[in-house]
Amino acid sequence: MKTITAVFLIALSVSYLLTPWVRQLAIRWGVMDIPDARRVHTEPIPRWGGLAIYLATLVGMLAGLTRLYLLAPNDGIFWQRAVPFVGLILVGTGVLLVGMWDDRKGFSAVIQAGFLLLAGLVVQLFGVQIEGFAAPIGGKFDTAHWVPLGVWAIPATALWMFVISKTMDTIDGLDGLAAGVSAIAALALALMALQAADMLDQPYPNWLIAISAAAIAGAAGGFLRYNFNPARIFMGTGGAQFLGFMLAGLSVIGAFKTATAFAILVPLLVFGLPLLDAVNVVIRRALSGQPIYKPDKRHLHHQLLERGLSQRQTVLLLYGIAIAMAVVAVWLYKRAIG
């Protein structure tokens, strides 16, 4: 637990210290979010805050992995266990860089989707894959049986990575919303991993999951100092999709690997808020005859603003919903493995 706490604090500090520098870099390169009819802010705000989040996550993960490396019986065993996490951060780097380029130049929705799906395929080469799910036989949750996906594991994993990455990007419409929700989801994944490591006596890969999730939570938390209303910098497409991609990957390595009746429900709850928002938007756009990929103001946070809530009130309310869903997910997970 001391290692997990240290990783969180390291990532928090790095993000806190680097974000002002990244802000100046974005201003120098002219990477600004210009207000329009769909956006809430009224003046240009620098993007690229995702770079600070990425670097803080990387430093935190390296610190935690170094600690586990020193405790490992030998190099071979350590690297065998660390491969999925190294692959996740490597492919996540590509997601960040493409997103940052999108922040500067702007890509079509098709190109964005294509790259995220490709990233979801490539990361599977490192062992990050939804191999199956647990289904209750005869309606009893305590007699769940593992159902392998076989060849369908490849598209299922790619689709999951795409959906979480994209939904985390789409909720990044208010100051501090995506960063806060990401931190909440990361802490939930860390708690579940620590529970599994203790109750199932499975230190690996759960320690690695907890370390990675703690690094993400710390990085997002440090960034919030500058991103909460009134925001001085946005994480941009690169930051939001990087956070979503990393968290989706950790859920694949962790929650989806648990052969319990809640193996699908738990990660759905962890990412409940962005998924709920995405479903709401898709349905409303489809019913109105509008293309589902076209940006608009149908998101949950836009609807709450229209009802008279301030930005801060809306964000805090959505934080509360995300926390409630995360608590239920952690409780179900504990019940499942206990």
Features:
70% helix; 338 residues; globular; 12 helices; two-stranded antiparallel sheet; mainly alpha
Please provide a written account of the structure.
It is built from 12 helices and 4 strands; from the N terminus they run αββαααββαααααααα. With 338 residues, the protein is mostly helical. It has one domain (2-129, 150-258). The strands form 2 sheets. It has a two-stranded antiparallel ribbon with strand order 1-2. β3 (132-136) and β4 form a beta hairpin. α1 (2-29) packs antiparallel against α2 (49-71), α1 (2-29) crosses α7 and α2 (49-71) runs antiparallel to α7. It starts with a helix and ends with a helix.
Write the SSE topology:
Blueprint: H1 2-29, E1 32-33, E2 45-46, H2 49-71, H3 75-105, H4 109-122, E3 132-136, E4 144-148, H5 153-170, H6 177-199, H7 203-227, H8 236-253, H9 265-270, H10 272-287, H11 300-306, H12 311-337
Antiparallel strand pairs: 1-2, 3-4
Helix pairs in contact: 1-2, 1-7, 2-3, 2-7, 2-8, 3-4, 3-8, 4-5, 5-8, 5-10, 6-7, 6-8, 6-12, 7-8
